[in-house]
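Below sits the subject:

***
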Amino acid sequence: MSRVVRFHQTGNAEVLQIGDEQVAAPGKNEVQIQVQAIGVNRAEVMFRNGQYLEVPKLPARLGYEAAGLITLIGEGVSEFKVGDAVSTVPAFSQNQYGVYGELVNVPASAVVKHPAQLSMLEAAAIWMQYMTAYGALVEFSDTQAGEFVLISAASSSVGVAAIQTANMLGAIPIALTRYSIKHEALLQAGAKHVIATEEQDLVLEVNRITHNQGARVVFDPVGGPTIIKLAEATAQSGIIFQYGALSSEPTPLPLFLVLAKQLTIRGYTLFEISTNPQRLARAKTFILKGLNDGKLKPTVAKTFPLENVVEAHQYMESNQQIGKIVLTV
């Protein structure tokens, strides 16, 4: 038996329930993990709300990222053994697998041995954030040293990962946050510049920082009407990666800016990386090197015990965190 988190209807955090369930043996090409830590992601909040890329099949499990020890090996798995310390990569549907629980089965293809120097908490805070940042900044935009990267929602785990990734590439990360209360923390996280968008003129500040050139790469999970300002702050022939839809308002197409600057607005998700074997291999190499070199360092904002999963989701929705929220098991 294992404690497992499910929700029987979409809605606010209170719909999450913990119950005891029998966990089957891992199937072909699967492994079973005794979970010690779980990374909480905005994608899971949106899935719970019914506002995600896929509609939850109720009663639904959830969760992409876990770290723990392998307890059982399914048929066809040869690259892992019982006792291996591993973490999971978001490379599956939450309607098929979910890692909010004590004992979980996941595809072996979505499992990675994590670097020995990382704690279990840190190991649960790697793959969603760094792989999302890697895909946009490395795989698809080939960000170069000295280029400006504009990072919206910069205090999120993915935002912090993008700051670190930009620095690893020698680029110049400009962090966007709504209010200046997070200014110093974002500088400490590695941002070279911080703009409080509710208190400062976003376009004016970007132009000042970039000497009126704009940022070639824009990394945005928000959408909504702010995309017009982001387009104004983007360099000629630049690219805007739209990897989320946190805004509840419509996202207009800034057509004349797109035409005048020859901009690319690209929809993007990390599944373009995690479900493509060649891209996934390149991402693992890049991220593991960064972790081993100390250039990528997962930031754990706050931990909650699994029993307090409702409070963990509420904390994420309060937008107070800088870095990753982690459940302990």
